[in-house]
Amino acid sequence: MGDLFSEAASARMADQAPLAARVRPKTLDDLVGQQHILGTGSALRQAIEDDRVGSLILYGPPGSGKTTLARIVAATTDAAFEQLSAVSATVAEVRAVIAAARDRLGANGRRTILFLDEIHRFNKAQQDALLPSVEEGLLTLIGATTENPYFEVNAALLSRCQVYELEPLSEDELATIVRRGADELGKATPSDALVDLIALRAGGDARTALNILELAWQTAEAQSEQLAEGHVEDAARKRPLVYDRVGDRHYDFASAFIKSMRGSDPDAAVYYLAAMLEGGEDARFIARRMVILASEDIGNADPNALVVAVAAANAVEHVGLPEAQLNLAQAAIYLAQAPKSNAVTTALAEAKRDVREQGNVRPPKFLRSTGHPGQRELGHGEGYVYPHDDPAGFDMSYLPDELKGKRYYKPDP
Predict the structure, then answer these.
(1) Same structural domain, 41 and 161
(2) Residues 141, 130 contacting (CB under 8 angstroms)
(3) Among residues 37, 117, 199, 308, which is most buried (max CB within 10 A)?
């Protein structure tokens, strides 16, 4: 009786499943996007088609096709396919999969592929439990993660896997997926303009695009109306923000923000600032980066840049968000438009190099301390010219004798 109910439930689940699950591609030819790793003749595509997939990690944003690609591998391989979610799997379950893989290989020579979703959620002990089996080839591991595996996966395990980065889908690719979803719904026949709007609101995420389409269609049907822009906007609400405060996108957006200011592009600087603030980035982190840039990339080409950056940092501390967003934006625009010079940065770098190579050579005797009477007897201070009494003091070299004539600070002409 239990089996009968299970079979009935399975049959009905196909109809009750979300649209994204119902139209999930089953072959590489049906898969939309990711041509940079799955194009004709690519190494990964050839490996999948020839059933010789090695251990790999699929890294990309939600809705880019990681799980779909793993399922396509499952459908095309002769190997046994095991699936675990790192969110709920235990070390005992991992060891059970390994034991089954060993028995399978010993009994009939059949390989085992383990698909591990959200692999970044595995702790060190769980990852270590996998390592020997992956290393000796007992298991072929396919991991999926939205987090940069170079930050989240053990180096030993990572070195035994090929990492493939999946990109957010383009609006044209999402439009293709939306039209497939509309065909599955049957009665939904969105115009090209509505398809483009759904693709725009989905933010590179195929699952989100199909969810918007399904909800908008259900709403329109419940109201006995034709699918319209209002239904789509209501279903979409807010374009998803693909940002994380501690992972890869934190570093990507921070890097883009800094490089935009360095490259004198105020529009890009404000955009990346807004993206970080909307994503919940720590405003103090943003302010610190601007204070650093003010000296690193502007320096004495505009000394006021440091004053502006420090003032913005103080505003963050004393005013706080959300009001301090304006102070950050003002500072970011100022820094982006300021004249640029890295003369301070290069001067310090060259001086530090000489300090390391020369072993901290001592100042010349005329610059050494004379605070103790015995120091004068050693010749300390002899020959020192006080510049305010004798302008010749402004023309002297104050470097150690070994570095006389050296120039570190070379202001831009």
Answers:
(1) yes
(2) yes
(3) 199
Q: Are 112 and 144 in contact (CB under 8 A)?
A: no
CATH number of the domain that residue 315 is part of:
1.20.272.10
Low-confidence stretches of the chain (pLDDT beneath 70): 1-16, 187-188, 238-248, 367, 370-379, 413
Using DSSP bridges, classify how beta strands 112-117 and 80-85 pair: parallel, antiparallel or unpaired.
parallel
Query: By CB neighbour count within 10 A (0-12 exposed, 13-18 middle, 19+ buried), where does 119 fall?
Result: buried
Pairing label, strands 112-117, 140-145: parallel
Q: What is the CA radius of gyration of the chain?
A: 31
Element housing 274 (H / E): helix 266-278
* Direct distance between the N- and C-terminal alpha carbons of the chain, in angstroms, rounded to an integer: 88
Structure confidence at residue 373 (pLDDT): 65
Task: Look at residues 324, 318, 290 and name the one whose alpha carbon lies nearest to residue 306.
Answer: 290
Taking each helix axis as running N to C, give the angle between helix 171-185 and helix 206-222, from 0 to 180 degrees, rounded to the nearest 10: 40
- Where helices occur in 51-154 by DSSP H, the ranges are 66-76, 91-108, 124-135, 149-152
Is there a contact between 342 and 296 (Cβ–Cβ < 8 Å)? yes
203 three-state secondary structure: coil
Contact (Cβ atoms closer than 8 angstroms) between residue 120 and residue 149? yes
What is the per-residue pLDDT across 182-209, written as a single tens digit (0 to 9) for each? Answer: 988 886 678 899 999 999 888 889 999 9
Given its phi and psi angles, is residue 379 left (phi above 0), alpha (psi -120 to 50 degrees) or beta? left
Amino acid at 369: S
Residues 6+ apart with CB under 8 A from 334: 305, 308
**Is-above-0.70 flag for pTM?**
no
Distances 135 to 57, 129, 158 between C-alpha atoms, Å = 15, 11, 11
Q: How many Cβ atoms are within 10 Å of 221's Cβ, its own excluded?
A: 15
Query: Same domain, yes or no, for 161 and 40?
Result: yes
The strand pairing partners of 82, in sequence order, are: 114
